[in-house]
Known about the structure:
Methane Monooxygenase Hydroxylase, Chain G, domain 1, 6 helices
Amino acid sequence: MLTEFSHVFAFLILAIIFVAGGLVTSWVLRPRNPNRFKLSAYECGEDPIGGPWIKFNIRYYVVALIFILFDVEILFLFPWALVLKPMGWFAIGEMFSFLGILLVGYIYVWGKGDLDWARPKPFVASMKDVVAIHNLD
């Protein structure tokens, strides 16, 4: 007699076999012809120049995270569209408040400058600038 936990265990074993089978099959069937280009590192559209521990621009990841955040939040519009008619004006009010929160977040990110791809370099004053400003007075 099978209990409920045995069903879960059977599905777990089946899932492990399915994943392991897919990994083994891909390992057996894959072509084995590595070359210099296939073995080189590739990240975010940048050519691999220099060593792997160089500093890179973090804006790739910031823009990607912002995109994922807003993309996932927009997915909540689809279930809302399905229940709009039965729920009536309450659903419309809730969605406008949700979209308002998203708009506030979007304005914050835009105002902070995280959506600008090419930011201007910050001006750091030197002693020459301080002396030049002092001589103008």
